[in-house]
């Protein structure tokens, strides 16, 4: 018997959760359910995270969480419960299978069978944002080596376990050479350890276009958080319906399983909603718990029901579907089909055994880190780069000299183009005159900036790691 935490959520949540649990328990799933309340009522009761402390305890104790969608109240101040849960519990991998059910669900891509594996904890999704000047706001994109290693290894281990042939990586490392560059580099390093699995890398723009056009060319795709957020919805939608996809959020300790859609409040309480997305999440949960035979039984019965054309309103199509049913009737049809297998679609059989178990991250020996300069970010409401160049040169010393100014990444000093539009946000690069800069020199620059009334809004140190420059040049430098 596995004890799990269940939250029925908001909107259509309770109906689709009841239907899902009904199917699971009728199939013989060995589940003991610990129910918690999350979502709208908890938010409105004054808990800005949408979850009470005792509910966290239940999830952390049971380690497996089946969650229905929730409604995030309109207006500011409410933190996304999904993001909070993923990050607080270290659920680093988001796994979303997207498979066509042609000819039973209409799709332009009959042979599509893609699994998107999205990094779930970092990237622009860390939500570290600041307003720095009147005109400029910033979102910090953090990519870490442990983050990359964990997700890339998970993708290859997933491919191995589920007999997938290829892992593709999407990044934008032609532009973001440090952040996406690290993701791609780690992908190349880890791919070597799996010679039996094909690997490839695409720049995300053309990769996304190809995935939307010819998804049958892809198998497992691994990518950083934000690209994964967007493209996993695209992938689910082009199989025929986002309403059919589930997802797993996997961490070293805990895991959360859910549908990818939201709480569809307008459809709530009318016995209309399709429980398939949540059911798909629940099937991944059964596999995670090692209840593989039950997972197989439920999936085959669901496929059979899809084939029989017993469809909820969202996927019902004249000519393909045979019966339009409500949530409860759909669940009953799946229950009737337990023990049966699909006749046209491929029957599933899952590998027995424990969930994927990845080695713990090991920190590498420290690199040789040398400070070679500093970027002072300055708020200055002028437009003329030569003028701010003159002002900033007042800070030059024997140890550090102004070598470059960029505006939104484009070099504007020295020798900028008069055509370049400049905002009030200037990156002023001071480089060491010698091979190395002392940290004191940064303090001196800051103190002199205050004396000269220069409004420094932040600094970034410029380093070499093991002799390699570890910061970007200015565009046009
Ligand atoms: P939504 O996914 O809830 O609904 C969009 C539309 O899709 C609905 O109007 C409905 O027509 C259809 N739909 C979605 N799921 C369906 C199902 N199972 N069966 C049949 N039809 C279905 O997206 P939304 O309207 O943008 O968001 C509604 C609420 O859900 C918001 O409060 C949002 O914050 C929340 N939300 C929650 C989650 C989550 O908890 N995981 C995810 C996304 C959105």
Automatic annotation (TrEMBL):
SMART domains: Iso_dh (SM01329). Its EC number is 1.1.1.42. Residues 3-334 form the Isopropylmalate dehydrogenase-like domain. Its cofactor is Mg(2+); Mn(2+). It holds the Pfam family Isocitrate_DH_C_bact. It catalyses: D-threo-isocitrate + NADP(+) = 2-oxoglutarate + CO2 + NADPH. Keywords: Glyoxylate bypass, Magnesium, Manganese, Metal-binding, NADP, Oxidoreductase, Tricarboxylic acid cycle. One of its GO terms (molecular function) is NAD binding. Homodimer. Catalyzes the oxidative decarboxylation of isocitrate to 2-oxoglutarate and carbon dioxide with the concomitant reduction of NADP(+). Belongs to the isocitrate and isopropylmalate dehydrogenases family. This is Isocitrate dehydrogenase [NADP].
